[in-house]
Amino acid sequence: MTVGNEEYGRFPLNIDKKLTITVDDETNLQYNVLVIENGSADIIEASCPDGICEDHLPISKSGETIVCLPNKVVVRIESDKDGVDIAA
Question: CB-based contacts of 66: which residues, under 8 Å, 6+ apart?
Fold first, then answer.
């Protein structure tokens, strides 16, 4: 996963996790809530005005992405060298 073109983290899809990603846009703090469960990643809440990232279906296959343009958050599924799918 990246925030503002910088890597934020990599999280395996086989371990359930809930993350709140905070983004400082110089005027106030913005956020996205990412949930990883049942082998997929989903943004379930966001402070962005359009909510497109919240409406996106959960992703689970290598190459799929969820993008929040206002908050500059990109969640991408990729396979690591061992074949484990991760949210990167």
Answer: 41, 42, 43, 53, 56, 59, 74, 75
Residue 44 three-state SS: strand
Put simply, whether the predicted model's pTM sits higher than 0.90 gets the answer no
> In angstroms, how far apart are the furthest CA atoms of the chain?
41
3-state percent breakdown (helix, strand, coil) of the chain, nearest 5:
5, 50, 45
Give 20-36 pLDDT, tens digit per residue.
999 876 777 899 999 99
Beta bridge partners of 83: none
- In this predicted structure, the answer to whether residue 57 has a pLDDT above a threshold of 90 is yes
